[in-house]
């Protein structure tokens, strides 16, 4: 009887650990993805003003885009990589979630990864009657 109760207790503890830490790891992934998308949008706001003023071309200034995206990440305490290709700013962010219950069985870190990309778009320039 004691072995059965002990096995049942270990099974229930493992199920609780998977439920709690699995949910929190998923929430961490969603948060990291949101950070990456927001940083990419921040970088995509770095327009090449000379090109825009001369002929209305929407083009990203790569150096300013990288700087804006990195400053956004630094402001929220996240780390990641920023790449600019053409007019698209791509940001990849990684984070580590430290499990609460699964650490009891040796799982000490769960790595989460998020990716976001953005490019400048022309907004509404007037109101239709």
TrEMBL record:
Residues 1-46 form the Putative Flp pilus-assembly TadG-like N-terminal domain. It comes from the Bacteria. InterPro entries: Tad_N. This is Pilus assembly protein TadG-related protein.
């Amino acid at each position: 009887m004691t072995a059965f109760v002990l096995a049942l207790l270990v099974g229930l503890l493992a199920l609780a650990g998977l439920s709690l830490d699995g949910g929190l790891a998923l929430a961490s992934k969603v948060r990291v993805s949101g950070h990456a998308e927001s940083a990419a949008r921040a970088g995509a706001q770095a327009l090449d003003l000379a090109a825009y003023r001369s002929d209305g071309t929407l083009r990203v200034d790569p150096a300013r885009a990288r700087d804006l995206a990195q400053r956004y990440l630094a402001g929220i305490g996240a780390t990641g990589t920023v790449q600019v290709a053409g007019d698209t700013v791509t940001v990849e962010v990684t984070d580590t979630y430290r499990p609460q219950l699964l650490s009891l069985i040796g799982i000490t870190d769960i790595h989460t990864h998020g990716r976001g990309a953005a490019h400048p778009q022309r907004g509404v320039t007037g109101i239709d009657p």
